[in-house]
């Protein structure tokens, strides 16, 4: 899992109390707006689609005007969350910052808990509970009050996500969701740092927000449902199998399961083992799988080649596609090998359970070529078409889920350049942050509708809500745009 990163100077603090700023009036929505984008990809499915956006569309996007461009305390290599007129960003040094969404003024910031390395995670906001959740460099998920940034503790909080924060990385966004049982939960995915070094194991920690109880699913040594320690029991004799995709865990509400994909590592699930490298896995919304593994799985036949050549299947997360009548519920999985694989969301391998190899419905090369390290955005257009948008360093493309001879197929619609980070879509407009530019395209044709200059981009991706567009960049800046 070798991913180039721009050098970032990380600052560390020892306190966990919020850092005070000048007093200011409470933030309220202007012009009757109360936009929400509470987590990466908008919702727990991380579809990258905002169904509530009304003001920005193909007829108004060309009028987008920059409202502010403000400096953050340091780089936020992820995606903002938006709720109640406030923006929340997790910085690479573990700081959580809150900004006024209409002026860019700093509302509050936390002093990051001590810990090594850095994070590229994105926060999640629970407006109902008045809390925002963020991963810290100490290996814990922390929760803070939306109003003033004060950390709330007790009942298991802060919640442990890894005992090895020096080698296990909180790379992915947090996922906030409600299971079929009505319980609110949070999922935190852990992987490794670039270079595949150290004793790390990819895993998910799923936290019950009502009781503070948590469940751990390890993608290698999955029969052990604990946090592994460094060089002392409990530990696993295998390493890697990172869960590091931008979207982390994806909620499939139809099956009440969490879906996620893994990077390189040993796979022996087909012979009854409990190691699940280069696979797509499904576990219950509570975080539980079977005694020795997931509830369902997909592993490509070329899993050993993916391992040998460092071609992580899990460089992107599963993307659930809008349903097409007469076809199975489908999901799309991309990877570092430059292949788009279409899977049956209800039966990942087509064999009725985990541990089987192969079974994808169809696979095609990424139309623009190149590896995919970003999240896929999905959308049903006004004519009922099921579309997916895939961006990478080579460009951006749209593909459609279609029936072909009674079977599911993927039909490329368009491709364009530049590409960039994880795209999002609203009202027939696709937004993508490219290095040095933020670009809006027509979702049907790929034609460029609008663009503006920003700083460099790594994992940063935009959000669109309430007539506003927000995006951070590698210059440590946050830019905001709106229609008149």
What does it look like?
The protein is mainly β. Helices cover 1% and strands 35% of the residues. The protein has 1 helix and 34 strands. The strands form 8 sheets. A 5-stranded antiparallel sheet has the order 1-6-5-4-3, with no helix packed on it. Strands 11, 12, 13, 14 and 15 form a 5-stranded antiparallel sheet that branches. It has a 4-stranded antiparallel sheet with strand order 2-34-33-32, with no helix packed on it. It is globular and about 60 Å long. The termini are far apart. Mean pLDDT is 93; it is low at 1-33.
Radius of gyration: 21 Å
Portion in helices: under 10%
Shape: globular
Number of helices: 1
Short key terms for the protein model shown above:
single chain; 484 residues; mainly beta; Methanol Dehydrogenase, Chain A; 5-stranded antiparallel sheet; 35% strand
Strand-helix topology:
Blueprint: E1 18-19, E2 65-71, E3 81-83, E4 86-90, E5 96-100, E6 106-110, E7 124-126, E8 131-135, E9 140-145, E10 159-160, E11 168-169, E12 175-178, E13 184-192, E14 203-208, E15 214-218, E16 250-252, E17 257-261, E18 280-284, E19 296-298, H1 303-308, E20 319-320, E21 330-334, E22 339-344, E23 362-365, E24 377-380, E25 386-392, E26 395-404, E27 407-416, E28 424-426, E29 429-434, E30 437-442, E31 448-453, E32 463-465, E33 468-472, E34 477-482
Antiparallel strand pairs: 1-6, 2-34, 3-4, 4-5, 5-6, 7-8, 8-9, 9-10, 11-13, 12-13, 13-14, 14-15, 16-17, 17-18, 18-19, 20-21, 21-22, 22-23, 24-25, 25-26, 26-27, 28-29, 29-30, 30-31, 32-33, 33-34
